[in-house]
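Worked example 3 (structure in, sequence out).
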């Protein structure tokens, strides 16, 4: 009888641990930026739509071109993270809206959002300079003294006798 109760308790503990492990691996999604839906992009008509129409349909831009305020960028990325693993990009979208000088949409296009994965390198960057020891650092200023201060009359251009 006691053996049966211990076996049931072990089974219950294993089921509890397995359910905790599975819920810990539930994916967590995060959206950054502005992922513009296709139906919203379809609302914008080049040659007809204005800045106000774009703001109403797509919202405020993620950024503007640094040297041309007539180009707006809508950049968005959705990531999914499972447990302790690094987040993986699930969806990404870049939309560029270009206006003419009158504020009318000239062009709207989706940009290929493929990114290049740049690996991190753990090497040290060589620098020039002297390599000094701890003792050299501690006693490096011995013998270096400030020059005596000049009198106030000397600095003012007067005579000192």
């Amino acid at each position: 009888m006691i053996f049966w109760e211990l076996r049931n308790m072990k089974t219950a503990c294993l089921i509890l641990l397995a359910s905790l492990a599975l819920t810990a691996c539930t994916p967590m999604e995060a959206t950054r930026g502005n992922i513009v839906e296709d139906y919203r992009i379809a609302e914008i008509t080049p040659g007809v739509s204005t800045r106000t129409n774009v703001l109403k349909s797509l919202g405020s831009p993620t950024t503007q071109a640094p040297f041309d305020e007539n180009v707006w960028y809508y950049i968005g990325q959705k990531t999914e993270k499972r447990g302790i693993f690094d987040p993986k990009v699930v969806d990404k979208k870049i939309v560029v809206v270009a206006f003419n000088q009158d504020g009318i949409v000239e062009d709207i296009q989706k940009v290929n959002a493929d990114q290049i994965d740049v690996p991190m390198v753990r090497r040290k960057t060589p620098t020039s300079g002297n390599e000094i020891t701890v003792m050299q650092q501690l006693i490096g200023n011995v013998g270096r003294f400030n020059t005596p201060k000049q009198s106030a009359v000397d600095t003012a251009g007067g005579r000192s006798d």
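Notes: The mean pLDDT is 79. The first strand starts at residue 28 and ends at 33.
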